[in-house]
Amino acid sequence: MNRNSDAMGEFAEFSPLEVDFRDGLLSMYRGEPQRGADGLLHEIDETTRISIAEGMILRALCLENGVTSSLEVGLGYGFSTLFLLAAHAGRGGGRHTAIDPYQATDWHGIGATQAKALVSRPSWSAPVSFEWIEDCSHRALVDLERMGRRFGLVFIDGYHRFDDVLVDFYLAAKLCEPDCLVVFHDMWLESIQAVASFIRHNRNDFSEVTTPCENLCVFRRVADDRREWSHFIDFPHPKPSASR
Ligand SMILES: C[S@@+](CC[C@H](N)C(=O)[O-])C[C@H]1O[C@@H](n2cnc3c(N)ncnc32)[C@H](O)[C@@H]1O
C-alpha cells in the first residue's frame, strides 16, 4: 500500500475513483509538487483548481449521462481533467479534449503531463484518450466545429470575463450532441452569473439542470437553436458589487 492509499481517510470522497486517478488527485489536493513537461517537479498554487465536490459532480454527470466524449476550456493543473478522465476510465472508455493556450507557459505542462501519463497506463479495459489543444478557446472551438467534432459534456473554466465566457458558450453550443451538458464553474463571479442568466432567458435550446453545488451551473441541450434573427430577451443580471 502506498502513502496515498494509506491516507484514504483524509479524502474519503475519492474512494469510488479508480486507484490511479485517486492517487494522482490525492497528491494534487495535498499540494505536493507535480511533474511538468520538463520532467521536473514543480510547486503548485492552491487556488487554481476545482473543489473535490465539484470534481465528483463532473464525474457523476459524465457517468450518469453516458458521456463518451468530453471537452473543457481551461486545463490548468488538470484537476477537472482527471475527474473527467476517471469517469471515462470508470465506464469503459472515452475521449477527453482540453483547450489551454497557457498550459506550457503558466502551468509547466503539469495538467497535460498528468493526463497523458494516466491514459497511457494499461489498466483500462477500454481505450481512454486525452488531447490538449494549445490555443485560445475562441480559435480552438471554431476549429473543432470545422472538423465536425461533437461532445456529450463541455466544461467551461477558462478566462472568466463575461464576454469570454459568453463566446465560449456560443461556440461550444455548436459542438453539442443532443442532450449534451454544458457546465460552468465559478458561479460566485458576477460575470458567470450574467452568462447563465442570458442562457436561461434567451437560449430555449438549453434547459437548466439542478445541481447540488452552487458554484456550478449546468445546462442540457434539448433542441436546435431556432430563434428569429432579431431575437433578444432582456435578462436580469447582477449589479456591480458595492466593493468596486
Ligand atoms: C481556473 S484555471 C482551470 C482549472 C482547471 N479547470 C482545474 O480544475 O484544474 C483556468 C485556465 O484557463 C486557461 N485559459 C485562460 N485563457 C484561456 C483561453 N482564452 N482559452 C482557453 N483557456 C484559457 C488558463 O491558462 C488556466 O489554465
What hetero molecules are in the model? S-adenosylmethionine
Described by strand count, sense and barrel closure, the largest sheet is:
7 strands, mixed
- Total E-strand runs: 9
Could you list the spans in which at least 5 consecutive residues all have pLDDT below 50? 1-8
Instruction: Give the overall shape.
Output: globular
Share of helix among residues?
25-40%
Tally of distinct domains: 1
What is the CATH architecture descriptor? 3-Layer(aba) Sandwich
Mind telling me the CATH class?
A: Alpha Beta
Strands side by side in the biggest sheet:
5-4-3-6-7-9-8
Q: Give the count of helical stretches.
A: 9
Using the CA coordinates, give the radius of gyration: 18 Å
